[in-house]
Amino acid sequence: MTGAVGLWAFIWWYGLRSLRTAGRADEYRKEIRALRERIDTHAKMRRPQPIEETRTYEYAVHGRPSRRLVLITGDLRNVKDVDVWVNSENTDMQMSRFHERSISAVIRYEGARRDPLTGRVVEDCVADELGRRVGANVPVEPGTAIVTGAHQLAERNGVMGIVHAAAVHGAAGVGYRRVDDLGTCVRNVFLRAEEIAGGGRRAGSIVFPIFGTGEAAADVESTVQSMLTAIVAHLTDSRPRHVETVYLLAYTDAELAVCEKALDACAHISSVGKAGKKRTRQK
């Protein structure tokens, strides 16, 4: 029995006891209120925990046997040989600082050229290219998607290209919040990803983080549902697609639970073996 469940059971027992001791009703009410406050505090202390291991949960797409939706867990840095990485970016296309805790920071740092001895960045490859591409044309419209090269991520992780999606926008004194139309954002990402090619082939796979759930603090459940609708629309489309395998990244245990629930409930896909498989680098 968990601490929270145990406390609730205690409250229930206390409630019955208080009915039998009406003379102390006010005192019992105060004690029950204090116990409820302890439960609230306990819940707030339970923060989503990062998933350390990279595992995959594969889903087949009905009527499209060559296409797959794959739930993948853990740190993006451990994702290998997925052709396109999606960066959840702001409408100013300003990437996070190297040591911030965000997808943008991971992509910026891992894509940079670094001193082999100290690890210090000597060329800010991805951010510099993104800056050149947008120039003075910022802020961009919410949902805009812009492609850059993978730079050092090509060698480190087997990435062909990066699509930077304007998934959050900020306001002075308020901070960032997720854009309203995530469907358009996801569709624009796919349009750009379909154009990425290299080494004599087109990109065939892509990995999405869950948009706007970092600093923008978007609701995970509604975000996953909006993204899933657009992802499934791409995978079930009858038109030819180069990008046929879509990965959705669950970084925390809470994100994994939400994603599994949403994917299991989706009528257009079916789980291919429920247990998550440990992922190893493809040869």
Automatic annotation (TrEMBL):
InterPro entries: Macro_dom, Macro_dom-like. This is O-acetyl-ADP-ribose deacetylase (Regulator of RNase III). Signal peptide: none annotated. Residues 56-267 form the Macro domain. Gene3D superfamilies: Leucine Aminopeptidase, subunit E, domain 1.
